[in-house]
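Please, structure for the following, as tokens.
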Amino acid sequence: MSSPEIRPYGAVSSVSKWDSGARAGWARIIVPLFFLLVFAVVDLGRLFFVQMALQHAMRQAARLAVTGNKLADPDNPGSMLSRVDSIILATLTSAPLRVTVVVH
């Protein structure tokens, strides 16, 4: 039976094969959690961006609906859009997203 190695206080031992195996085990746990956290932050950022863009678009559409203002027709200069078309155009142009509006 071998006696334990006696080293001065603060001495660093060499890395054994067991230490490198433990590091690999910790890396298998930490790396996926790190990427999960990074992608979760990015996804939440996108979620808040979409929510703010849609809120802005709905605010613009509500403003036109309440005031009864109409927008100029971009296809026919000098004429105005109908009230419903003005609301739809305000919703589509104020949001930096692709929005599909279906009117029944």
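The chain is about 60% helix and 0% strand. Residues 5 and 11 are 12 Å apart (CA to CA).
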